[in-house]
Amino acid sequence: MTVDKPFVATVRYVKRDKKNDSSVKPYILHYAAPKDFPQNNFAIEPVNGIGIHSLRTAGLSYEDHGMTITSIDDSNMQPKDFDDDDWIESHYLPKLHDAVCLALGAKEMTVFDWMLRKRSRSFPKRAEGEENVDDHQPSLSAHIDYTEAELNSRVDAYFGSKKDEMLSRRYQVINIWKPLLGPCRDFPLAFIDPTTVDTENDLVKVDEVFPTVANEVFQVYSNPNHRWYYVPDQLASEVVIFNAYDSVKGQQLAVPHCSFDCGEAGSGIPRQSIEVRAFVFY
């Protein structure tokens, strides 16, 4: 892949549909819907010809654009190690804590969630008889992981009686993403510069419904002003940090993101990655 000019790809957005009933909130079910019940009540559409620029050479600051790249020592990390939850907790997360705090100038990081994704070879299609139940797949539609209301609803669960003490400082909610093996040329993650997002008209609140819980997220409508970035040939020693919420700026710098297909320029080696969600305190 050439890094001197944008990589041109297809990105998936929510389809603007004037026929939709504005009084009915969009939803998507993350389990098999009952018979004759729609799995979701909105449509995703591919938008072709999107130029995705190199974040390496963009010169964007985290403070102004909500995303940055930093490095982590991966000399003792193999993809198979990440299959062990205890290893992630005892080895990877402490290293990540130090790398992120150094990169952002934060004093402390509290992880509240992490997820492995392992692309099935048939993805984005599904082979006959294949359920992909155990492995999370790349997310292909542009989105932000949380609305402010969703974050507020989770704070008690994260901090309990320490909530007021923890949130009395400036803090941010961030996502930290990296491939387990690089260079990553298979469904890499791409990011919209939040300063190019019209938050009033580009974002729509959607309920992601699981068997026991519903999470409110933002899905994204297409806008030709959006400027997209990714890390070409991202290495396993590189992590991307991107913002979801800031206690001072709110969601002004929340970064919409999704994966995209590199087509013939892809490696063909199914992507494996880990994403970590955390609070950082200053």
UniProtKB/TrEMBL annotation:
Signal sequence segment: none
A GO molecular function held by the record: oxidoreductase activity
InterPro entries, per the entry: AsaB-like (IPR044053)
UniProt similarity note: Belongs to the asaB hydroxylase/desaturase family.
Name under which the protein is recorded: Methyltransferase
Species per Swiss-Prot/TrEMBL record: Triangularia verruculosa
